[in-house]
Amino acid sequence: MMLKHVTRVVAVIALAAGVAYCASAIKVVVEAEKYTKITPSMKKTASANASGGYFIEIPVRRPHAQTEGAPADTGSTTYTVKIPSAGVWQFWGRAMWYDACGNSFFVKIGSNPAVQFGQDGTYGRWHWVKGPKVNLPAGNVQVVVQNREDGAKLDQFLFTKNLRYVPVRAEK
User: Fold this and answer.
1) pTM, full prediction
2) Which long-range contacts link 38-42 to residues 24+ away (Cβ below 8 Å)?
3) What does the pLDDT read at residue 66?
4) Are 107 and 134 in contact (CB under 8 A)?
5) Where are the domains of the chain?
6) If the chain, 172 residues long, is cut into consecutive pieces of 10 residues, what is the mean pLDDT of each piece?
């Protein structure tokens, strides 16, 4: 009799741990070309190396990197992202940078202020860049990716509630 009770308790604990793990593993993945609105000079570009076959980019302008700070135009992409549950979410973007003067965007998530996203030193290949942690409500949230530096490319972005999760390849 006691063994049955212990077995049930262990089963309940294992089930609860599984539910907690699933909750922490929740992620929302967005292909960058699946925007609801795009404004030039931001553009969609085809590539066999991009997840989904496309990415968005700020085209390189000549002369490149003459000024820094504000974007040269109002180019942007806007997304509507369905967030399944309220809470703190980590933003990640799968990016490719042209060079040290072409390695960032501005990103505005929901009602949070726009922040600079990028500025790491990995150039010429797709890689994941950690962005801001944001507190989001459940439901549709607007994400705006805006021009900052020419030559920046974005293939995917994701939100995860698992703050220890680090993506390593294109996500599904």
Assistant:
1) 0.83
2) 38/76, 38/77, 38/78, 39/74, 39/75, 39/76, 39/77, 40/73, 40/75, 41/72, 41/73, 41/75, 41/147, 42/75, 42/76, 42/77, 42/145, 42/146, 42/147
3) 61
4) no
5) 28-160
6) 48 39 72 97 96 95 64 85 98 97 95 95 97 98 95 97 97 94
The one-letter amino acid code at 77 reads: T
Rounded CA gap, 113 and 127, in Å?
Answer: 25
Rounded Cα distance between 77 and 74, Å, is 10
CATH 2.40.50.140 corresponds to the domain 28-160: no
Map tokens 């593993």 to a residue: 25
**φ, ψ for residue 165, nearest 5 deg:** -70, 135
Copy the structure tokens of residue 172.
Answer: 């599904």
Q: Are strands 37-39 and 104-109 parallel, antiparallel or unpaired?
A: unpaired
DSSP string, the chain: -HHHHHHHHHHHHHHHHHHHHHHHT-EEEEETT--SEEETT-EEEE-TTSGGGEEEE----SSTTS--SS-SS--EEEEEEEESS-EEEEEEEEEEBSSTTS-EEEEEETTSPPEEEE--S-BSS-EEEEEEEEEE-SEEEEEEEE--STT-EEEEEEEES-TT----S---
